[in-house]
Write a structure and sequence with these properties.
heterodimer; A: 7-stranded mixed β-sheet; 8 helices; about 30% helix; B: alpha/beta; 5-stranded parallel β-sheet; 15 helices; binds iron/sulfur cluster
């Protein structure tokens, strides 16, 4: 997994609550059997005026000029500012893959849907929860100042605004450790293979019907 | 002994080890796999040169891309490749699969319970958010992402943290014409789509206990729409009776030992919950969603709400956007909303009981002239043949419905079954998001009976007036 330590990134605001994973990456792109290449189709239905199809040349498609990602001032954004319950809906990891492929490295919102939140960490994308009033203030500041950036420091667990205001955020120790070091979780878990086998043996005693397929 | 909730019992029974910060390695008993969220996981396994930990924990099927018409080969080459990739992975790793054409194939959340592959006391995962469905069997069932699918394939465990607990207590008896789907929508309307975030929900109370397993699955299925990653119901006689004799369920002496253990899978008297919500079943009515989030829901006798009456600015803008997208006016009666298509299916409502309930409304009636397409898509091949044995297919076909082959179908339109831009659908599925059933599609979530009533009326109609 890709490590995340610090980031000084341009912020793009998506000012709607309950942004679902169908909006982040529509279902027709889920037919791909790859993990990469989803960036051009991030927020596809909002970003383009036509209906996108997989394996299409997106550079020729008509853009929706009203959508934030298409506005010149937000080109190159690495931080996505969002409202509550961002990433609700399906478990598709294509959502963080699309964000990552587009270049988004961190997300800031008052709340995230659980599965999406998990999926971000697995892909080196940092989801940050800040209080709703702080996020509200950030939305106002972004709107008022083109080129608005946030400095994010995972080790210190802080988000720092251009005016120097610092907002602390919480993150599970274990996730932080994995993300800071870009660790492969499967490799880490397999170091405990003996414990898993011992557990399996205990379960097989207690609930033998769990093991073995159809009778 | 400390009284424990059902969730705490399931959690404790599966912890392999725990990090100091509370992150735990949870053992996974059953892994359900479908074609959309697994190819990258198998690829990851291959690239890292890792073995599969326990292949007998896995049951695989293709459901999202599969055609529901009688084509033997999927026309869309991208969909075809995704399905054949699953078939190939199952062959390579010797995984039990119900591929396209197998009479047991169907929506992964329908076939797991149907086969007895989902059992009480299990941890069940699938790369699909509606895995919460399986919690109806007092299993700890969670949707996971593709990286986690790979983690489970390679280690049989998941890294997880204990959730907070919520008990949703539905007491009393449901009025006629009110179903498990209305209960689910009523709960979501009450707590909101983020109401269950960070929680595992236990559905309890006399109204839940009186539901069949099919009904309980419908309620647990939509726990994810309430923001919860897991929903569950305690074991009782209904659970045990459902499981007896299923292909993957234990037999002989093992059955008795299993049942004895399963009977302990309920919350103890006095168990603590982080949040308790109570609903009065007798006051739930048939519901219809009007917006682009499942919490945007009202009674069939109600009206489209007016955003002007909403004081919170973000919520107001959300309502305005939803009404624009749905092309609805504030104050409009729900029963005045005309529909273009009807979809009866999905992992929420495609089981035999759902089809029976819809058929009872449809029987002897005709699909209204303004309805361009009314689809019934059974959840599995076995549901389909059971329905045909009862003659339900004839009832639907005579009324003007199309009777299709199993799959996810128009729930998300990854195959050819979808809405055209601007089309409005009465759908028994679980999500009414923008574009969910096709670009520009407009979805109204309802119960199977309500979808049937809408089909024969051409607009939403109160199913209670159809029942005598
Ligand atoms: S029926 Fe719909 S919600 Fe259920 S698994 Fe299929 S696509 Fe997902």
């Amino acid at each position: 997994m890709k490590a995340f330590t610090t980031l000084d990134g341009l912020v793009v605001p998506i000012d709607r609550s309950n942004v679902d994973t169908d909006a982040i990456i529509p279902k027709q792109f889920l037919k791909s059997i790859r993990r990469t290449g989803f960036g051009p189709n991030l927020f596809d239905a909002w970003r383009y005026l036509d209906e996108g199809q997989p394996e299409q040349d997106n550079s020729k498609r008509p853009l929706n000029p009203d959508f934030v990602l298409n506005q010149p001032r937000y080109q190159g954004a690495q931080v996505l500012l969002a409202r509550e319950n961002f990433g609700c809906g399906s478990s598709r990891e294509h959502a963080p893959w699309a964000l990552d492929d587009y270049g988004i490295r961190a997300l800031v919102a008052p709340s995230f849907a659980d599965i999406f939140y998990n999926n971000c960490f697995k892909n080196g994308v940092l989801p940050i929860v800040l209080p709703a009033d702080v996020v509200d203030g950030l939305f106002r500041e972004v709107a008022a100042s083109p080129g608005y950036r946030l400095r994010i420091d995972l080790a210190a667990q802080t988000v720092i605004t251009p005016s120097g205001a610092s907002h602390g955020f919480s993150v599970d120790e274990f996730r932080k450790y994995c993300l800071l070091n870009g660790l492969d979780e499967i490799g880490l878990t397999l170091r405990h293979a003996d414990e898993i086998r011992a557990y399996e043996a205990r379960r097989a005693q207690r609930e033998p019907w769990i093991f073995g397929g159809a009778a | 002994m400390n009284p424990l909730s059902l969730y705490e019992k399931l959690w404790q029974a599966h912890v392999v080890r725990e990090e100091p910060d509370g992150t735990a390695l949870i053992y996974i008993d059953r892994h359900l796999v479908h074609e959309v969220t697994s190819p990258q996981a198998f690829e990851g396994l291959r690239i890292a040169g890792r073995a599969l930990w326990r292949r007998d924990s896995i049951l695989a099927t293709a459901d999202h891309n599969t055609p529901t018409t009688d084509q033997k080969v999927i026309a869309d080459p991208v969909s075809r490749l995704q399905v054949s990739t699953l078939d190939q992975n199952c062959r390579d790793y010797h995984i039990t699969e119900f591929p396209m054409g197998d009479h047991r194939q169907g929506i992964v959340h329908v076939i797991g319970p149907e086969q007895g592959a989902t059992l009480p006391g299990m941890t069940v995962v699938c790369g699909d958010s509606h895995t919460s469905t399986h919690g109806a069997f007092a299993a700890l069932a969670m949707g996971i992402g593709t990286s986690e699918v790979e983690h489970v394939l390679a280690t049989q465990t998941l890294l997880a943290r204990k959730s907070k607990t919520m008990r949703v207590q539905v007491e009393g008896s449901l009025p006629r014409g009110v179903t498990a789907k209305d209960v689910a929508l009523a709960i979501i309307g009450h707590i909101g789509t983020a109401g269950g975030t960070g929680h595992a929900i236990e559905f309890a109370g006399s109204a839940i206990r009186s539901l069949s397993m099919e009904g309980r699955m419908t309620v647990c299925n939509m726990a994810i729409e309430a923001g919860a990653r897991a929903g569950m119901v305690a074991v009782d006689e209904t659970t045990i009776a459902y499981l007896k004799g299923r292909p993957f369920a234990p037999g002989g002496a093992r059955w008795d030992a299993a049942v004895a253990y399963w009977r302990t899978l309920h919350s103890d008297e006095g168990a603590r919950f982080d949040r308790v919500v109570t609903l009065d079943a007798s006051r739930i009515e048939p519901l219809v969603t009007w917006g682009t989030s499942p919490e945007m829901v009202t009674t069939v006798g109600g009206r489209v709400p007016d955003p002007a009456a909403e004081s919170d600015a973000t919520r107001r803008e959300g309502m305005e956007r939803a009404l624009r997208y749905m092309a609805l006016q504030p104050g409009m009666a729900i029963t005045d909303i005309a529909i273009d298509k009807v979809f009866i299916g999905s992992c929420t409502n495609s089981r035999i009981e759902d089809l029976r309930a819809a058929a009872a409304v449809v029987k002897g009636r005709k699909v209204a002239a303004n309805v361009k397409l009314a689809l019934v898509v059974p959840g599995s091949g076995l549901v389909k043949s059971a329905a045909e044995a009862e003659g339900l297919d004839r009832i639907f076909i005579e009324a003007g419905f199309e009777w299709r082959n199993p799959g996810c179908s128009m729930c998300l339109g990854m195959n050819d079954d979808r809405l055209s831009p601007g089309e409005r659908c009465a759908s028994t599925s679980n999500r009414n998001f923008e574009g969910r059933q096709g670009a520009g599609s407009r979805t109204h979530l309802v119960s199977p009976q309500m979808a049937a009533a809408a089909a024969v009326s051409g607009h939403f109609a109160d199913v209670r007036t159809f029942l005598n």
